[in-house]
Amino acid sequence: MVQEKGTISIHTENIFPIIKKFLYSDHEIFLRELVSNAVDATQKIKRLAALSHYTGDLGDLKVEVSLNEEAKTITISDNGIGMTAEEIKKYINQIAFSGATEFMEKFKEAKDANEIIGKFGLGFYSAFMVSDKVEIQTLSFQEGSEPAKWVCDGSTEFEITEGSRTHRGTDVILYINQENEEFLQKYKLQEILEKYGRFLPVPIKFGTKTEQEPDGEDADGKPKYKSVEVDNIINNTTPIWTKSPSELKDEDYLEFYKQLYPFSEDPLFWIHLNVDYPFNLTGVLYFPKVKNDFDPQRNKIKLFSRQVFITDEVKDIVPEFLMLLHGVIDSPDIPLNVSRSFLQADSNVKKINSYITRKVADKLSEHFKKDRKAYEEKWNDIGLFVKYGMISDEKFYDKAKEFALLTNTKGEHFTLEEYKEKVAPLQTNKEGNLVYLYTIDAAKQDSYIQAAHKKEYDVLVMNSPIDNHFIHHLEMKQEKTSWKRVDADVVEKLIEKDENLSHVLTEEETGKLKTIFEMAINKPEMKVEIEALNPDAMPVTVTMEEWMRRMKDMARLGGGGMGFYGSLPDSYKVAINGNHKLIDRILKTEGEEQQVQLARQAYDLALLSQGMLTGADLTNFVNRSVQMI
After folding, report:
1. Which of 102, 376, 460, 511 could make an SS bond with 438 (beta carbons 3.0 to 4.6 A apart)?
2. Which residue windows are transmembrane per the record (predicted)?
């Protein structure tokens, strides 16, 4: 017998079409919302029992998801607190916001399902994204309660009658509509449950699975096994971030990492987050082995709220440079499922962002101070991450300058301050500016490095994908300091001293030499200059001016505002060492053709040392060399 019929109190008849239309793109979240509601109801009965407000038998507390392909239904069942008919009217029929008119106005342009659900607590109503009809069978924990049944077909009409449930809890039965029959596949539900419910705090059962268990021994004394059907429990109810660090060993953290990222190498180390004021936040962040092939899009940090997976798009909660980390963050204080602009404006998000930055900096500092040798061994893996942080976050830079390392071609590591003290005596130029020399490819630029070493200069290795940006950033931070790539000029010009070398050539010889080399090279982008250099220096050196080359490199790597430099044609300086004996030989060689050929050979050698001699030019150089031998 019908007990009551009525209209859902939302002041409009258009609410369900809007839900169906605007939530459709994210329709799989219906399962997350309904399972989360069932978990909440289960946890509530546990709390009531703990407070002695419920003295009955709790029984086996779990949430069960069941699929009936023939009836085309999905049922989410719990044995939590249940509801009375009055509570159904209160919680289900009146949607818990003041007026749907405001709702419709605000979200008529909405494209994000999460935006609507999270803002108004419409979790239960996500069921109508996939259902023609939704039925609730429920029995309250309260003594003397009667079972109640609620049915709604997606219009604003509902019906409450006497229910059939005989024990405490709630069943939500979804009659899946034709457009969403993909959810009537067992593997699809398993996939969604694993995605969102893998670490829920109450066991989630989805059917059964077959396992092998010991069954004595065979005639040869070998163990036998038999197949048994057991509950298919989706989740681990106590993941490591819910525990105290004192309960955990290194193996526990590594095992959990393997659960999250089964195909990754072991992480370097990790941070266990646990704070309850001024916001609630738990989690574990891992430092992966990043090296130079980092991909922030892979193995992302996962965001949970009370152990419910929400998203792995955490860029507003976690500072950008920390997106290189892996792991889990769980906070009920992050405003969930709303538009990105709302998330950024939230004060808790900003506090959490700052807290995580501080914790990461403190952890790195602790490692550096505790065991510097081990820290240096890990630097190849974490250096990229630290530099990225220093470029993008001022507060992180202030802390990281104490534990960021620079590495030279000999494999020695220095903090920024240590390196400054090391090179200041020899690498200060005549203007009093400190010059840091670096290479991006020690093997390719070896001749330039050797020339620097002859002068007892030190050369740093800066070969990570963001080192151009890092160098640029350090130059802005460090007073009276400039960075020059070791092949950006001849060594005497990289760090100019008060020494005044002069070359032995007359003005006429200088002019003649310049003409010979311009004829040999015949490329307008190559600017020939005759220099007074050490007789032991290379006869010809090809370089690109430091500032222009760096701007072009940054443009190639996507540096903001650098696109203009990337479009400029390449321009090089060809420095001819007027004091080298080969240059003297070229001038003394008879015949212009022979002079040009020798000059071309010297120029090609300079290109070869830069890795710039390729294709037909390289072939011609080899053939010419064979003829000369």
Report:
1. 460
2. none
Neighbouring C-beta atoms of residue 25, cutoff 10 Å: 12
- Domain of 136, in residue numbers: 2-206
Predicted confidence at residue 488, as pLDDT, reads: 82
> Could you tell me if 348 and 274 lie in one domain?
yes
531 is in an annotated binding site: no
Model pLDDT for residues 518-552, shown as the tens digit of each residue: 999 999 889 999 988 878 888 998 887 777 777 76
**Domain end marker among 206, 232, 253:** 206
The domain boundary, picked from 340, 357, 374, lies at: 357
Q: Is residue 415 part of a domain?
A: no
Is the domain of 48 the same as that of 160? yes
Is 225 among the domain residues? no
546-556 helix and 467-477 helix, angle to the nearest 10 degrees: 130
User: CATH code at 177?
Assistant: 3.30.565.10
Do 195 and 320 belong to one domain?
A: no
Give me the helix-helix angle, 113-120 and 15-22, nearest 10°. 130
Residue type, 560: G
**Is 33 a known ligand-binding residue?**
yes
Q: Are residues 244 and 181 in the same domain?
A: no
Total count of domains within the chain: 3
* Long-range Cβ pairs for the range 608-611 (8 Å, 24+): 609/447, 609/448, 609/538, 610/444, 610/445, 610/487, 610/542, 611/441, 611/444
Q: Are residues 146 and 195 in the same domain?
A: yes
β-pair type (269-275, 281-287):
antiparallel
Whether pLDDT at 140 is above 70? yes
286: domain CATH number is 3.30.230.80
pLDDT at 105 over 80: no
Q: Are residues 194 and 250 in the same domain?
A: no
Which residues neighbour 138 within 8 Å (Cβ) at sequence distance 6 or greater?
A: 82, 83, 88, 147, 148, 149, 150, 163, 165, 169, 170, 171
User: How confident is residue 341, by pLDDT bands cut at 50, 70 and 90?
Assistant: very low
Q: Contact, 286 vs 267, CB < 8 A?
A: yes
How far apart CA 80 and CA 77 sit, in angstroms, is 9
Q: Which amino acid is at 195?
A: K
CA–CA distances in Å: residue 318 to residues 267, 270, 285, 327:
19, 16, 11, 12
Q: Is 83 one of the annotated binding-site residues? A: yes
According to DSSP, the residues that pair with 136 across neighbouring strands are 150, 172
75 marked as binding residue: no
pLDDT one-digit tens code per residue, 383-441: 988 999 999 889 999 999 999 999 999 999 999 999 999 999 999 998 899 999 999 88
161 assigned ligand-binding residue = no
Q: Is residue 28 part of a domain?
A: yes
Do both 9 and 116 map to the same domain? yes
Evaluate whether residue 147 is within a structural domain: yes
Structure tokens at 395: 């507060």
**pLDDT, tens only, 173-211:** 999 999 999 999 999 999 999 999 999 999 999 999 988
3-state SS class at 351? helix
pLDDT score recorded for residue 611: 80
Asked whether residue 78 is marked as a ligand-binding residue, the answer is: yes
E-assigned strand segments in 109-236:
131-139, 148-152, 157-162, 169-176, 204-217, 223-233
User: Is 143 within any annotated ligand binding site?
Assistant: no
Report the pLDDT averaged over residues 39-51.
Answer: 91
Determine if the pTM surpasses 0.85: no
| Same domain, residue pair 175 and 310 | no
SS3 for 354-396 is HHHHHHHHHHHHHHHHHCHHHHHHHHHHHHHHHHHHHHHCHHH
Higher pLDDT, 76 or 212: 76
- Angle, helices 592-609/507-521, rounded to nearest 10 degrees: 70
